[in-house]
């Protein structure tokens, strides 16, 4: 059930700003069936293993991490740039449907006077969420911290392109750089400025290639390597 709000309150403002963003879905407490607890993460991990039993353990782990973080990242970027709002992502709860997490229950919704304040608040909240998710996931399976960071940066770049509402390439590029440096003191994922478009130069492979070997993601780093090798 989609969340119901009273017009004028921060929750209503947030819901309205996200009404044209299908990547982020706000729900009520009655819909929630997943939280960032080891038992819940372990159950989702087993579901991924069963669903994609023909793939490698690496795919299961990467997919698990992506499921845990993609909604918080998209929510953070969209709410920040569309309404100057931040939420308490550290206490985030979600909706699990089979092997997918989609649907969020948000708390402590704060409207900020300036975009700069909203950016700072969202980065701080997202950092806490990512740290909590990674530390809890470590109790279930192992993913290197460096790999986890690159995956975050790739999803962050996609979120900026798809839901930030920023049209100017230079502004989008600067914002993406600002968030990555604030979160990790380094930028891993970039926009391809030579193409003068919003094409993303990904830092790592999502391993979807294990699902469809003949249909890799268009901007997959491994696909680029294969094309270069073939050309040589």
Features:
three-stranded antiparallel β-sheet; disordered C terminus; two-stranded antiparallel ribbon; 51% helix; mainly alpha
Write the layout of secondary structure elements.
Elements: H1 10-17, E1 34-35, H2 38-51, H3 57-83, E2 85-86, E3 93-97, E4 100-105, E5 110-111, H4 115-137, H5 145-163, H6 169-184, E6 190-191, E7 200-201, H7 221-231
Antiparallel strand pairs: 1-3, 2-5, 3-4, 6-7
Helix pairs in contact: 2-3, 3-4, 3-5, 5-6
Shape: globular
Report the total helices.
7
Distance between the termini: 54 Å
Question: SS-based structural class?
Answer: mainly alpha
Q: Helices and strands, in N-to-C order? A: HEHHEEEEHHHEEH
Estimate the helix proportion, in percent: 40-55%
Q: Strand order, biggest sheet? A: 1-3-4
**Percent of residues in beta strands?**
5-15%
What's the main sheet like?
3 strands, antiparallel
Overall mean confidence score, pLDDT: 90
Task: Tell me the number of strands.
Answer: 7
Uncertain stretches of 5 or more adjacent residues: 1-7, 225-232
| Alpha carbon gyration radius | 18 Å
